[in-house]
Amino acid sequence: MECCTKNNNKSSEHTEHEVAHEDNQSKHSHSGCGDHGSSEGWTDSAANFLRRFWIVTVLLIPLVLTNEMTAGLLGIGDVITYAKWIGFITATVIFGFALIFFQHASHEIRSGKYGMMTLVSLAVGSGYLFSVASTFLPALEVEFYLEISTLIWVLLFGHYLEAKSSVAAGDALEEVSKLLPSTARVFVDGEEKTVQIESLKVGDIVLVKPGEKIPADGTVSEGGASVDESLISGESKPISKKQGDKVTAGSICVDGALTITLARVGEHSTVGQIKQLIKDARATKPRSQKIADRAAGILTFVALIAAIITLLVWFLLMGESFVFGITLAITVLVIACPHALGLAIPAVTTITATLTAKNGIFIKNMAKIETIKKAGYVIFDKTGTLTKGEFGVTSVSSVTGMSEDELLRIAASLEQHSSHIIGLSIVKHAKKLSANLVEPKQFKNFAGKGVSGTIDGQEYHIGNSTLMRDIGVEDGDMARHDKQDRAETQIFISKDKKIIGVIYLADEIKKEAFDAVRKLHDMSVKVAMLTGDRKNVARSVANELKIDTYFAEVLPEDKYKYIRSLQEKGNTVIMVGDGVNDAPALTQADVGVAIGAGTDIALEAGDVILTRNNPEDIARLIFLGRAVKSKMVQNLLWALGYNVVAIPAAAGAFAAWGFFLRPEIGALLMSASTVIVVINALSLKKIKLG
After folding, report:
1. Tell me, what's the pLDDT at 14?
2. Is there a catalytic annotation at residue 381?
3. Nearest CA to 643 among 604, 675, 681, 669?
4. Residue range 180-278, CATH number
């Protein structure tokens, strides 16, 4: 298949044009392996096949009327005199409408992927050429123009049904495209103008009124409104947006009006990134697809060999006429077309991509869908995934006579430059109490442990017990102030290697976490938890959620080791993290899931991206993985099983019972088998993931 080469410097609208052209090209790759292109390509293909079908329907009329049996019934036997030439002329015109099969067959042959179009072309071509030879060489005696023309007629209608079925399966890219409006209100020299969305550029100022969709990512420069981001992030409640807040393409302005300065447009916007993820995923194949591809290629040669053997056996060994033998051989070629096998997996993955995109789930590599199905362990990062990640300071304890307010002021001053959720929570609490924070000097961050800095000429450290031990705080001093009985997070403050105070914080467990763990257990999947928190805090959360195992006091850079330990015991592991801090762990896992991406879906880490921060989506993902794998297996079994029975039947294996298949009946059965595969895949749409 020829591809368009993109220039990264081109405008977004030109890129969209190239993508459309690329998708349109893909419909020409019509191999048995089943690259059927986009739904747009299939829509054009469906209309093309239907148009050809109706023309051939009309052209069949003279062929039917000149058939000996039909002419006898209608009392128009005189036309039989000219039947040979009427058949030749009409069938030649009909054969012209079948050249589309030969075009696709040439693509298969050039790419070395022999498939259904190769077989169809051989069947139609050999039947037509034999009839033409018989027309000009009377010694051959028999033409079957009507049979070959009927075969073409059935094949055209069958391909129309298949194309329509593929369109019905849906296209994830088309669904995402619906998120954006077609036009936008742009201020040009102070005047409001309506322009096509493709013409938007960074820096444009747009107006979005109530009920309208936001055309691109940007920042609110004026106004305020509630914005519905459910189509993008899955967040069901409208979010209040005011001046300075970021907004996302595809979101809906529920009330009020927003003036927005655009920051990311076209392929760089959130919707553009989602499209790119889907395109990347569509370029990947599940393992089952690779098996189907190989089987389709093998089946093509099996059918060719079976057709030759059929002709030789019936003509040379069984003593039947050459016409009889070649008719069965043609039937073998037609009925063995591996179209059902080629569509078995793509039909399922197409619907899967659409279904997941609608639910805020983006699978970067479709090969992972089969791994997801086999999951034996799901490991959650605790903070922000199973818990809300909204730490609240429950108490401050001074152990040296320093006031609690002063202790909090020092801690918050140090944590001002920290990006950790605990540090942010301490700062937030201090500001709520109107603490007078100062700028720390010689600030230093210890990843996963804490921070240090100088306040009022004194050096302080604030962090967990690991940091305290690292800087030389004595174990006895630690033991006196480490309250192991409290199921809260403890943050120590030290000066001169002595503990001077402790801040206690608590994080609430998400209610969705309880349902997530229960559903995973119902599917016989074990649950583990990773956290940098203390053992007693981890134990408390694990016991409350009924988690199978937990790993506490784990540094971010060491998380992957615990995943590897479970893998070494034979477990298929899914790791669920934030996609940034957990990148090494996500990479180590059999499937890495970046959860809570929201509108920032362009995360590098993770095989799967979930826009919502809802742990229940993991249970939904595994449920979907199992359903998808089941459909793949069903389709493969049907496609292979059909050929196991159909090829011998077409070759005349059941002749002893008087059962033979004609080419046109074989074509109907071949088309029906393909439609069955697509209908089975379409049943995935009934799955409720919400």
Report:
1. 36
2. yes
3. 669
4. 2.70.150.10
* Topology, domain 392-506: Calcium-transporting ATPase, cytoplasmic domain N (3.40.1110)
Sheet holding 191-196, edge to edge: 191-196, 183-188, 205-208, 258-264, 217-223, 246-247
Specify the pLDDT at position 600: 52
Residue of 381, 482, 578, 590 marked active site? 381
What is the C-alpha to C-alpha distance for residues 270 and 347, in angstroms, rounded to an integer? Answer: 27
- H/E element, 559: helix 559-567
Rg (CA), the chain: 34
pLDDT band, residue 96 (cuts 50/70/90): very high
**pLDDT above 80: residue 155:** no
User: Which residues are CB-contacts of 263 (< 8 A; sequence separation ≥ 6)?
Assistant: 202, 216, 217, 218, 219, 246
- Domain 361-388+509-611, architecture per CATH: 3-Layer(aba) Sandwich (3.40)
Tokens 């595809």 correspond to 250
Q: How far is CA 667 from CA 19, 92, 123, 154, 616, in A?
A: 34, 20, 10, 6, 46
Domain range list for the chain: 12-169+285-349+634-683, 180-278, 361-388+509-611, 392-506
Identify which of 236, 335, 348 has the alpha carbon closest to the alpha carbon of residue 287: 348
pLDDT bracket for residue 153 (50, 70, 90): confident
Q: How many residues does the chain have?
A: 690
Q: Are 559 and 583 in contact (CB under 8 A)?
A: no
> With contact defined as beta carbons under 8 Å apart, do 258 and 224 qualify?
yes
